[in-house]
Amino acid sequence: MTNHDSNGGTTIKHRHRQEGPQKHVIAFIFSIVLTLIAFASVAAGGVNTAFTVLLLLVMAVLQVLVQLGYWMHLKDKGHMIPILFMAGGFFVAGLAIIAALYWMWW
């Protein structure tokens, strides 16, 4: 798609690519599957507690990535600044947790 500007030159107008509902449906189904896996691991009861906790943590991290990537659109171009601020926040929060644990157990 081209347009002519007032100086006689040609400008190229880029269209914003629309994202259809297919990816949102897939992300929603993936979120439901992650939730069902986490629920099943706890409901099973006979599974090792350490394995269940580790599985829940992995499911939680995957769920956060799906939520941020597809529902908050952080996978799209132009979202590097929010990603950097969130990474900085996670870093500071992690340091605060480590410092608190170190302080309590010292």
From TrEMBL:
- Single GO MF descriptor: cytochrome bo3 ubiquinol oxidase activity
Give the UniProt entry's GO cellular component terms: cytochrome o ubiquinol oxidase complex; plasma membrane
Q: Which subcellular locations apply to this protein?
A: Cell membrane
Q: Which GO terms describe its biological process?
A: aerobic electron transport chain; electron transport coupled proton transport
Q: Which PANTHER family match?
A: CYTOCHROME BO(3) UBIQUINOL OXIDASE SUBUNIT 4
**Family (UniProt):** Belongs to the cytochrome c oxidase bacterial subunit 4 family.
Task: From the Swiss-Prot or TrEMBL record, give the protein name.
Answer: Cytochrome C oxidase subunit IV
Species source reads Paenibacillus lutimineralis
